[in-house]
Amino acid sequence: MTQHYSIGTPGKPWGDAEKLQWRAQQSKQRDYVDDVVRRIDHLREQFDVETYGELNYDERSFPLFVVRSRNWHVDRPTVLVTGGVHGYETSGVHGALYFLETEAVNHLARFNIIVAPCLSPWGYETINRWNPDAIDPNRSFVSNSPAQETALIMKYLKQHKIAPSVHVDLHETTDTDNSEFRPALAAREGTTNDNWNIPDGFYLVADSSRQQAEFQRAIIETVKPVTHIAPADEDGCLIGAPMIQEGVIEYDAKPLGLCMGMTDAKFVTTTEVYPDSPNTNPVECVDAQVAAVRGALEFAADKC
User: Fold this and answer.
1) What is the model's pTM?
2) Which secondary-structure segment (H or E) carries 169?
3) Which of 150, 186, 192, 202 has the greatest CB tally within 10 Å of its CB?
4) Which residue numbers delimit the Peptidase M14 domain (predicted)?
């Protein structure tokens, strides 16, 4: 179904005026400090917490945090977990935090662990996919990134010479992808929007340049007892991409500027939870994110 967006002229890309109009319509709906920063503060007894930058927008500044293993060993493989690249994808943020609170300690003997729980706090607060400049951070992991959210985490990893062997990027696919975010994208670009079928269940996006089919399969098997895996649609696809094995599609991450493409990790995946399913709930969605990270680490433990 084709939808026209409330801002802009159909067929004409947005200029600065339209982007400002879009930004003026956004409002704070939840609190980054209360929901995220306070939980990070409680982790300081077990982990090192570092500020890797600050987002500065007209109305607000947001400190950005990574949580790291306290005893860092250069001879151990490193695991990177990222959440909240798209701030509106709630279980990505809370799944990263809950992993640190419950599961991470079980893997410290084998891995260095570094978690960036919420890369896009403005998007978290306003429940948005984009940042205030109408830029999608998860298409901006490129050199000279136009998005502060991506540039700052990439700079931090480079400065500290962090080269993960495993990277799990936590995301959601929601009904608002069709009702809001895809129509907004088409309007911004001056193109026509055609909604995709929202998969009912959990799935993964692999990087086609380093697919690691057994790694993806191990994660799916770990998540299965927690929540249901999305079946393919009538065309054998999930969100328009062919399903290459149960619950897995693939994209070429680096050319698309995706978060999972920002490192050369051997084992990399993007999780996708469907929180709007009648067959799940918010707690189960967070648990599925944690299970996905656990499955990734259990598989990679003797392969890095």
Assistant:
1) 0.96
2) strand 166-172
3) 202
4) 28-304
How many distinct structural domains can be found in the chain? 1
Element (H, E) at 271: strand 267-273
Report if residue 2 sits inside a domain. Answer: no
Q: Is the dihedral of CA 40, 228, 174, 249 positive or negative?
A: positive
Residue 74 to residue 51: CA distance in whole angstroms: 21
Rounded Cα distance between 19 and 23, Å, is 6
What is the DSSP track for 53-77? EEEE-SS-EEEEEEEE-SS--TTS-
Q: Which amino acid is at 122?
A: W
Using the structure block, give the residue that is written with the tokens 């801002």. Answer: 7
Residue 73 lies in a domain: yes
Collapsed DSSP state (helix, strand, coil) of residue 265? coil
217: its two tokens: 């399969």
- The CATH number assigned to the domain holding 102 equals 3.40.630.10
Beta strand pairing call for 267-273 and 61-68: unpaired
Structure tokens at 93: 């943020």
CB atoms within 10 A of CB 197: 14
Per-residue pLDDT tens over the stretch 147-201: 999 999 999 999 999 999 999 999 999 999 999 999 999 999 999 888 788 999 9
Burial of 265 (0-12, 13-18, 19+ CB in 10 A): buried
* 276 found inside a domain: yes
Mind listing the pLDDT tens digit for each residue in 3-47?
Answer: 578 999 999 999 999 999 999 999 999 999 999 999 999 999 999
Q: Which of 171, 161, 42, 46 is nearest to 104 (CA)?
A: 46
Helix (H) or strand (E) holding 254: helix 253-256
Q: Name the residue range of residue 171's domain.
A: 16-300
User: How far is residue 98's CA from residue 55's CA, in Å, rounded to a whole number?
Assistant: 24
Residue 186: its H or E element: helix 182-189
